[in-house]
Amino acid sequence: MKRLSHSLWRPFYAGARNEVGVLHLVIRGSVQGVGFRYFTRSTAQRCGVAGWVRNRDDGAVEIAASGSDQALESFLAIVQRGPSGSRIDGVEHLPAGSAGEFGSTFSVRR
């Protein structure tokens, strides 16, 4: 599996031993109306990632995710492929600081 560059997310520290990273993504293509948000939530739950996913007005899907490096690598590898019926044209990495707040679970936002 391709290892993510640490420049793709901003690690922060909640104590000396709990390193957590953040991904903030925009997925473009045929990603609305194909179950992409629910696929993303299911993938996040399997990978142990917290955060949120939502549809954007421009037809893209936006994702903010937080977890260990290994969890984020697995999550990103799966989400970049998308569910059957979707078509991914591009994945844009946004600044992690713009992801906002998210709790300990993964939610689908409207």
Give an overview of the whole structure.
There is one protein chain. By secondary structure, this protein is of the alpha+beta class. It has one domain (11-96): 2-Layer Sandwich (Alpha-Beta Plaits), CATH 3.30.70. It is built from two helices and six strands. Strands 1, 2, 3, 4, 5 and 6 form a six-stranded mixed β-sheet that branches. A hairpin with a 5-residue loop joins β3 (50-55) and β4. Residues 1-17 have low confidence and may be disordered.
Order of helices and strands: EEHEEHEE
Note the overall shape: globular
CATH class: Alpha Beta
CATH architecture: 2-Layer Sandwich
Strand content: 25-35%
Describe the main β-sheet briefly.
6 strands, mixed
Span of the ends, CA to CA: 32 Å
Chain-averaged pLDDT: 84
Task: Outline the fold blueprint.
Layout: E1 12-13, E2 19-30, H1 36-47, E3 50-55, E4 61-67, H2 69-79, E5 87-93, E6 106-109
Parallel strand pairs: 3-6
Antiparallel strand pairs: 1-2, 2-4, 2-5, 3-4
Helix pairs in contact: 1-2
Could you give a quick summary of the protein structure above?
The protein has 2 helices and 6 strands; from the N terminus they run ββαββαββ. With 110 residues, it is of the alpha+beta class. Strands 1, 2, 3, 4, 5 and 6 form a 6-stranded mixed β-sheet that branches.
